[in-house]
UniProtKB/TrEMBL annotation:
Top-level taxon: Bacteria
Subunit comment: Monomer.
Species for this entry: Pedobacter heparinus (strain ATCC 13125 / DSM 2366 / CIP 104194 / JCM 7457 / NBRC 12017 / NCIMB 9290 / NRRL B-14731 / HIM 762-3)
Primary subcellular site in the record, as a coarse category: cytoplasm
UniProt keyword annotation of Methyltransferase present: no
Protein's name in the database: Flavin-dependent monooxygenase
Record has tRNA-binding as a keyword: no
GO molecular function, one term: monooxygenase activity
Domain FAD-binding: 7-330
Residues annotated as signal peptide: none
Length: 381
């Protein structure tokens, strides 16, 4: 086995990194995950995930965790309403009479992470390990973390997201701005803090289109809401605006100006007592990206192929990366590490590019002048 007597370091404890760690441990690999969060109790942000056949669901099957997944997935989260700027319902799964589709079952990120964490051997995840730098040592790498610790690994796998600090050791390719910026909002105890919009979801999700702008949101099992307001904008418009996104009054003033044609019902997101905002310009890596394969370093997930969230592909492609890399590294098909990693990277880059292309096309539709009509036609069929 290629990984026999080798130490593997996965940098980043998101879905891709944890899935890969689980799959490698099933092959008796010596693997550690180095995660910047202080501990596993840090609140997990982000939208509910829908896992797809052949990628996210396949990863859970290969990890032997599909029963645990279905024990915690949320069928109601698949129900959707499509509305216009005035919150007028144009399409409603709740009144369609159709049973809830399980083609893409949904689960909140926190329970999914817990399932993966609980499947790992004790102390697999090394918390409070914020990657800073690394240098080559022997045939591997010496990694340094912000807390002052350092470790040696024969193989390093970057799973540390779109702003990966490990990726530059492999590729100098820079991400490309997509033309879309979104503002993410998180509201805790949403039934109290945004009661009307909370009730409006009926436990599912809402997608709203108008004026080449989008608002999407859904409730989570912990009673919170995550919403995004996305729009076409120059790349640095948010940073140049001078808005302090910790100042709710400033963000609300921005929303009323930018989304002036939207009804006041949406203001509830911005005027409650417990909302937190994050500006997120959306980037992707070039579809024709490439790099020289190394025998002791590779990357998966957003570190390799970040993309906007408008097709629901990011986490699924990342989890597919995990099981395909595990198969290459822990199988018997390849004669050496470099050959195994090269095979994985060629397939991964191709899949990532296809998912990114689909995402960019979907993003263009969702922010077009006819977005509402196009999305209604799509979901009606």
């Amino acid at each position: 086995m290629l990984l026999e007597n080798k130490k593997v370091a996965i940098v980043g404890g998101g879905m891709a990194g944890l899935t890969l760690a689980r799959l490698l441990q099933m092959k008796n690999t010596d693997v550690k995950v180095y995660e910047r969060d202080m501990n596993r109790d840090v609140r997990v942000q982000g939208s509910t995930l829908d896992l797809h056949e052949g990628s996210g669901l396949e990863a859970m099957k290969r990890a032997g965790l599909i029963d645990e997944f279905y024990a915690y997935h949320r069928p109601i989260a698949s129900k959707m309403r499509i509305v216009d700027q005035a919150l007028q319902i144009k399409f409603d799964d709740h009144n369609s009479g159709k049973t809830i589709s399980e083609d893409r079952p949904e689960i909140d990120r926190a329970p999914l992470r817990d399932i993966l964490l609980n499947a790992l051997k004790p102390d697999t995840v090394v918390w409070d390990s914020h990657f800073q730098s690394m240098e080559k040592q022997s045939k591997g790498w010496l990694l340094h973390f912000k807390n002052g610790t350092g470790i040696y690994a024969d193989l390093v796998i970057a799973a540390d997201g779109a702003k990966s600090k490990v990726r530059p050791f492999l590729s100098a390719e820079k991400p490309v701005y997509s033309g879309i910026t979104l503002i993410e909002g998180n509201i805790y105890d949403a039934e109290k803090n945004a009661p009307k919009l909370f009730e409006f979801t009926k436990g599912g999700k809402v997608m709203a289109f108008g004026n080449e702008q989008f608002i999407g949101y859904g409730t989570k099992g912990d009673g919170s809401i995550m919403f995004v307001a996305s729009f076409k904008a120059p790349e640095n418009s948010v940073t140049q605006s001078g808005i302090d996104f910790k100042n709710k009054a400033q963000v609300f003033a921005w929303f009323k100006e930018t989304y002036a044609s939207w009804s006041e019902e949406w203001h509830e997101f911005f005027t409650n007592d417990d909302v937190h905002f994050i500006p997120r310009p959306q980037y992707y890596f070039p579809l024709n990206q490439t790099w020289e394969t190394q025998d002791n370093l590779t990357m998966i997930g957003d570190a390799a192929h970040c993309m906007p969230p408008f097709a629901g592909e990011g986490a699924n492609v990342a989890m597919q990366d995990a099981f395909e890399l595990a198969e290459c590294l822990a199988g018997t098909k390849f004669r050496n590490m470099k050959t195994a990693i090269s095979h994985f990277e060629k397939q991964m880059i191709k899949r990532g590019a296809e998912a990114t292309q689909d995402t960019l096309e979907n993003s263009e539709i969702m922010h077009s002048k006819t977005a509402l009509e196009q999305m209604l036609a799509f979901f009606s069929h």
